[in-house]
Specification:
Blueprint: E1 2-7, H1 18-21, H2 33-39, E2 47-52, E3 68-72, H3 78-90, E4 94-98, H4 100-104, E5 114-116, H5 120-133, E6 139-140, E7 166-169, E8 172-173, H6 184-188, E9 193-194, H7 197-209, E10 215-218, H8 227-244, E11 250-255, H9 263-271, E12 274-282, H10 286-291, H11 302-311, E13 315-322, H12 331-342, E14 347-351, H13 359-366, H14 391-406, H15 408-421, H16 435-455, H17 459-472, H18 477-493
Helix pairs in contact: 7-8, 8-9, 12-14, 12-15, 15-17, 15-18, 16-17, 16-18, 17-18
Length: about 500
């Protein structure tokens, strides 16, 4: 059977890093890990090809002699996914789909021939069995969660690694917390399940043998959800492997703020090669944290937690939300002040939305406040419910936050605040094997000088910051350059000018 795996296109968003990727000659940040993993579950005699629309164009000619098209997507890729399905139907090619978008909103995709939902380790074998008999059903779903020790490794041979900024692997699924706006637990449950340490090491070994020498993103929604297993099983093996290989990768992941409570865990993560972590801060307003049941963030000094992580060698990226019912009129300035003081350079501030399957969605539906489906992009000024605060005031305040945070003056000042706190612990020695990475960094520097130091209207702020970094934080100069490029991307995405 000839099958085509298609990963829909992401729109230009905060996390697309579209404008930053051009500086390092990459097409996308991460490969489609879900499709690469499902590909490993397919029969060995299938003729499989993968098209990532974020890396290459999808054309109707690709459907020639194709028996089946598989699509996996997140909510934000919905528009692109619909266009793929329409093209396939036009050419009479059957479609199968899975992943968060279709699992959360299958009612909107009834024109897809086969919906293989929830966790593929459970539902995909049944689909394959029925397909081999010539009698596949329209819907395959299950409330059960898989044993991840049976999850196969991704098929890296299906992609061109050189097109991506980072590779991705997954250690766990599930989260022990109960934030009411998050659909992680509705998709993967509260019990944190994990792969074995040998599985993770084997996946990293595969990347190493494929000559990958850059970042690796652990896509876990909460990497520290099972701290005992992490500290006793994975991290010791990961530290040993990374030391033996002389640190070929840098890792980043997502974690809850209570990571700051565990000095030993932070130390082990840094020794294992982690240099950055995304943390859901959401809001400095205690009442709003209680409203959304983000109890793990309450009654703690969040700025101190962030700075502690930075002092221990972890760059902190942060997620923030405005639009809670409990938000006071002062929330817009409070968010700005908090983010500036914390030195979180990559601060994603979004409007509150209610994804399907969440407790927030059910609560708002019961109250008659829902107005549309979630677009998947909480930074595009859209909301899928009627907020308690006046909508015009909310949008105006949200826009004010973005303009302040990502104006050149405030942004570069925030990077300085971060660099004063950040204390990287791992010093990687020069290696000829890393030469492509060094060349890429030099190319990024030269492009930043041209585009940001000469062509950009904010060039004065760029040069002032660069000189400061060169003389005050020379050891972190490459990281400083990286953040100038990030700032350029954020200004372009939010259309912020000098």
């Amino acid at each position: 059977m000839k099958v085509l795996l298609v990963y829909p296109k992401f729109p230009d968003t905060f996390w697309s890093f579209k404008y930053a990727l051009k500086f390092v000659s990459k097409k996308a940040t991460h490969p489609p890990l879900g499709l690469l993993t499902v590909a490993s579950m397919m029969p060995a005699d299938w003729d499989i090809k993968l098209i990532d629309m974020n890396v290459q164009k999808f054309s109707e000619k690709m459907l020639k002699k194709v028996d089946l098209v598989f699509i996996s997507a997140m909510a934000i890729q919905g528009e692109s996914a619909r266009s793929i399905v329409e093209i396939c139907k036009k050419h009479g090619v059957k479609t199968a789909a899975g992943g968060p978008l279709f699992t959360s909103d299958r009612a909107s995709f009834q024109d897809i021939d086969y919906l293989v939902l929830n966790e593929a380790e459970i539902t995909f074998p049944g689909f394959l069995r029925d397909l081999s008999k010539g009698s596949p059903e329209h819907l395959y779903t299950s409330p059960d969660h898989c044993d991840m020790t049976h999850t196969p490794p991704p098929r890296w041979d299906l992609i061109n690694m050189k097109k991506y900024k980072s590779m991705s692997i997954q250690y766990t699924r599930g989260c022990p917390f109960n934030c009411d706006f998050c659909n992680v637990t509705s998709l993967f449950g509260h019990k944190v399940r994990h792969k074995s340490a040998p599985q993770i090491i084997a996946e990293l070994e595969s990347l190493f043998k494929n000559k990958w020498r850059s970042g690796v993103f652990f896509v876990d929604d909460n990497f520290i959800g099972n701290r005992a297993e992490l500290k006793n099983e994975l991290l010791p093996e990961l530290i040993k492997w990374m030391e033996e290989k002389k640190y070929p990768f840098t890792f980043n992941t997502q974690a809850s703020v209570n990571l700051a409570d565990d000095d030993e865990l932070m130390g082990m993560m840094v020794r294992a090669g982690f240099d950055s972590v995304f943390v859901g801060i959401e809001t400095p307003n205690e009442e709003s944290l209680a409203e959304c049941k983000k109890f793990q963030n309450k009654t703690r000094n969040l700025v101190s937690c962030i700075k502690k992580m930075q002092n221990n060698g972890l760059q902190v990226m942060g997620g923030f939300i405005v639009g809670f019912d409990s938000d006071p009129p002062s929330i817009f300035q409070r968010q700005i002040d908090f983010i500036q003081k914390s030195g979180i350079v990559t601060a994603m501030v979004g409007l509150l939305n209610a994804p399907q399957g969440t407790a927030l969605y059910r609560r708002l539906e019961k109250a008659g406040r829902l107005v549309s489906n979630f677009t998947g992009d909480n930074t595009n000024f859209s909301m899928n419910f009627i907020p308690k605060i006046n909508h015009d005031i909310l949008i105006e305040g949200y826009n004010y936050i973005l303009k302040r945070l990502y104006s050149p003056r405030e942004f570069y000042e925030r990077v300085k605040i971060f660099l004063r706190e950040y204390d990287p612990k791992i010093k990687v020695k020069f290696s000829i094997k890393r030469l492509p990475g060094y060349i890429a960094s030099l190319r990024a520097l030269l492009r930043s000088v041209w585009y940001l130091g000469i062509m950009d209207k904010a060039r004065l702020y760029y040069w002032k910051f660069l000189l400061w970094a060169l003389f005050r934080k020379s050891k972190q100069f490459p990281l400083a350059i990286t953040y100038t490029i990030y700032g350029f991307h954020f200004r372009k995405v939010f259309d912020i000018r000098k």
